């Protein structure tokens, strides 16, 4: 799968391939549909006929309603949103459908200098890219040999230029180029600490990928991340709900800067978190593993397998 695919396309692709590898009777909802958007599902073909399986973060928006109505079975990726949608008349289950391919991702070696923070996403405000740039500029402008790399293979030009013109300098570098694989991107722009101050309630695959390569992460302390990740491999950002933001708040420039400065000044702890994170992710979050752990038991319980 090409690195330029969106995160949702990658989740869809990898889970589909893992299902096929496990000989599960699954077909694509629409094999020709390139854009899966945020809400994606499968037509599962169990013994008794087809069943429409929907995966969602559980966001309560009007645009999700049609898919919720069409679904026979709904898997939500967070206990927080499962409880929030408890009044739904459809059968709903928890499934943390996130993972990495352990045959591709492995721990990468890095040098001590310079110290690099990385943010491998399409820079957008809802992913906290502006907050991150402001925090880095405020905290590290006068500290030598520390950099922020923001890289994405096919950044939308208008979006990339907007951020580059506002924040780009010799310390904050915006990088856009094609890669042969997602691992190649991590190798080329290897960081010492990954930063993802997202305002969204869905897991970015890049967080799991960074951890799997031994790079610890500074991440938003939303409920979904706290369910998935261990304190020993991440630094949590405090979420301030002022003004209210989707019920779980958003990080602040000052807190992002403080957590980055702490990571920069405590490099041995950063390395320890990186080592722990690599083992933690590989043991818990592979595509086949998440199917076997949470998806298959439900399908068997309901008599679909």
Order of helices and strands: HEEEHEHEEHEHEHEHEHEHHH
Secondary-structure content class: alpha/beta
Q: Give the CATH topology of the largest domain.
A: Rossmann fold
Identify the overall geometry. elongated
Head-to-tail CA distance between termini: 28 Å
How much is the radius of gyration in Å?
20 Å
Task: Give the second-level CATH assignment, the architecture of the largest domain.
Answer: 3-Layer(aba) Sandwich
Total discrete domains: 2
Number of helices: 11
> What oligomeric state do the depicted chains represent?
single chain
Integer average pLDDT: 79
In short, what is this structure?
By secondary structure, the chain is α/β, with parallel strands linked by helices. It has helices spanning 7-21, 65-70, 79-84, 129-140, 157-167, 182-188, 205-212, 223-228, 253-265, 267-284, 287-301; strands at 26-28, 40-44, 51-56, 73-76, 92-94, 115-119, 146-151, 172-175, 193-196, 217-220, 234-237. The two termini are 28 Å apart.
Topology diagram in text:
Blueprint: H1 7-21, E1 26-28, E2 40-44, E3 51-56, H2 65-70, E4 73-76, H3 79-84, E5 92-94, E6 115-119, H4 129-140, E7 146-151, H5 157-167, E8 172-175, H6 182-188, E9 193-196, H7 205-212, E10 217-220, H8 223-228, E11 234-237, H9 253-265, H10 267-284, H11 287-301
Walk me through this protein's architecture.
The protein is an alpha/beta fold and 305 residues long. The protein has two domains: 7-99 and 286-301, no CATH class; 115-284, Glycogen Phosphorylase B (Rossmann fold). The chain contains eleven helices and eleven strands. The strands form two sheets. Strands 8-7-6-9-10-11 form a six-stranded parallel β-sheet, sandwiched between helices. Strand 2 (40-44) and strand 3 (51-56) form a beta hairpin. Helix 4 (129-140) packs across helix 9. Residues 30-39 have low confidence and may be disordered.
């Amino acid at each position: 799968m090409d690195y330029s695919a969106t995160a949702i396309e990658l989740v869809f692709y990898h889970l589909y391939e893992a299902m096929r590898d496990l000989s599960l009777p699954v077909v694509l909802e629409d094999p020709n549909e390139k854009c899966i958007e945020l809400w994606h599902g499968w037509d599962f073909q169990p013994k008794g006929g087809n069943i429409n399986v929907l995966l969602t973060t559980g966001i309560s928006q009007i645009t999700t309603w049609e898919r919720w109505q069409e679904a026979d079975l709904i898997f939500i990726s967070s206990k927080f949103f499962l409880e929030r949608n408890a009044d739904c008349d459809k059968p709903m289950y928890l499934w943390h459908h996130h993972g990495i391919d352990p045959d591709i991702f492995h721990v990468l070696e890095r040098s001590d200098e310079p110290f690099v923070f990385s943010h491998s996403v399409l820079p957008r405000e809802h992913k906290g890219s502006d907050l991150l740039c402001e925090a880095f500029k405020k905290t590290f402008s006068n500290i030598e040999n520390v950099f922020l790399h923001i890289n994405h293979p096919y950044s939308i030009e208008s979006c990339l230029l907007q951020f580059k013109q506002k924040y780009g300098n010799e310390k904050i570098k915006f990088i856009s180029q094609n890669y042969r694989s997602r691992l190649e991107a991590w190798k080329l722009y290897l960081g010492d600490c990954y930063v993802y101050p997202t305002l969204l309630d869905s897991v970015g695959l890049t967080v799991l990928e960074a951890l799997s390569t031994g790079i610890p992460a500074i991440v938003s302390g939303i409920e979904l991340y706290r369910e998935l990740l261990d304190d020993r491999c991440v630094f949590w950002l405090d979420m301030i709900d002022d003004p209210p933001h989707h019920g779980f708040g958003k990080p602040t420039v000052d807190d992002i800067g403080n957590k980055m400065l702490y990571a920069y000044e405590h490099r041995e702890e950063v390395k320890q978190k990186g080592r722990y994170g690599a083992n933690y992710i590989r043991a818990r979050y592979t595509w086949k593993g998440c199917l076997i752990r949470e998806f298959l038991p439900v399908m068997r319980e309901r008599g679909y397998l």
